[in-house]
Automatic annotation (TrEMBL):
<protein>
    <submittedName>
        <fullName>Endonuclease/exonuclease/phosphatase family protein</fullName>
    </submittedName>
</protein>
<dbReference type="Pfam" id="PF03372">
    <property type="entry name" value="Exo_endo_phos"/>
</dbReference>
<keyword id="KW-1133">Transmembrane helix</keyword>
<keyword id="KW-0378">Hydrolase</keyword>
<keyword id="KW-0812">Transmembrane</keyword>
<keyword id="KW-0472">Membrane</keyword>
<dbReference type="InterPro" id="IPR036691">
    <property type="entry name" value="Endo/exonu/phosph_ase_sf"/>
</dbReference>
<dbReference type="GO" id="GO:0004519">
    <property type="term" value="F:endonuclease activity"/>
</dbReference>
<dbReference type="InterPro" id="IPR005135">
    <property type="entry name" value="Endo/exonuclease/phosphatase"/>
</dbReference>
<keyword id="KW-0540">Nuclease</keyword>
<feature type="domain" description="Endonuclease/exonuclease/phosphatase">
    <location>
        <begin position="138"/>
        <end position="340"/>
    </location>
</feature>
<feature type="transmembrane region" description="Helical">
    <location>
        <begin position="83"/>
        <end position="100"/>
    </location>
</feature>
<feature type="transmembrane region" description="Helical">
    <location>
        <begin position="50"/>
        <end position="71"/>
    </location>
</feature>
<feature type="transmembrane region" description="Helical">
    <location>
        <begin position="107"/>
        <end position="125"/>
    </location>
</feature>
<keyword id="KW-0255">Endonuclease</keyword>
Amino acid sequence: MARVFTTETEETDEARRSRSRAPARLLRRAFGGWGGEEGWRSARTWRRGWVTAVLAVFLGLALMLHSVIPNTIGNLGSLWETFLPWGGLFIPVLLLIALIRRSVTALAALLVPLIAWLSLFGGLLTDRGSTGGDFTVVTHNVNAGNPDPVATARQLKGSGADVIALEEIAGRRIKVYERELADAYPYHDVRGTVGIWSAHPLRDSEPVDIGMGWTRALRTTVETPQGQVAVYVAHLPSVRVQFRSGFTAGRRDVSAEMLGQRIEDDPVPRLVLLGDLNGTMNDRALAPVTSQLRSTQGASGRGMGFSWPASFPMARIDQIMVKGLEPASSWTMEPTGSDHLPVAASMNFPK
């Protein structure tokens, strides 16, 4: 009897051909077979896929009711709100499962998270900005370990902004930024690890206590040709995601309350807050600040405006917020040597 031997190469080729056919089989499974007995009117297509349907509804509720997700266990609510736009990535995953299962019930349930996500973030997908602006600002966490602060300073100076705010300035780098920005920004003030550079005169500059034991917030008055603007620069405490304790943000939350109270007491009607707040506009823990001010990105930004991490931005934790001014445009700038992207905004004075 003759024996047939299959070589290792033949086995490998056959396995490779099988793998190459796998996507086609998956597509046929997902998109084929919806006619006849397996059509959308079939009772079987409505009876199956209930687990996927429940997950879809749960996702929609988590998006719509994000503010009621409790923070009592590991600040889960704030963690979810920090990356809330990315919750939409679960929708195509559930869609694929629904198609593979050929479940009309699951497909119908997916309308819940889809509508929820679009209501929250659909408006952010467009460019809401306008041209011009009376007053332009830039904020940037320059990173204490920035390998090239000279290039960073020159890039920021090239923005032509009226005011530049910097956070996480290492003490030994202060002179570098002062030297590189001096010609375009003759007025500046640095307190602790934050600083402001302005093309217009500054007055009444002072540190702002946010409960950290050292200075990471500054308040000054910018004397623009159109009038006074109170400008705050702040770098709120960092947050961490740890296995045992969850989303640790207690110090940041306390600092947000202190900063919010200081802003509420400010007598100047036109106010700008610049800085790394280590939180997004959706995070309820920043409500003491965000409830008083308007995000320039939300009002006039280009897209989502994610600013961190610079290598693959996933969240906008670098904020520009205003009161008494009308946002005209807001955008994320090109990367520097920092792990954050600079963000900028132009605004108009009220007529």
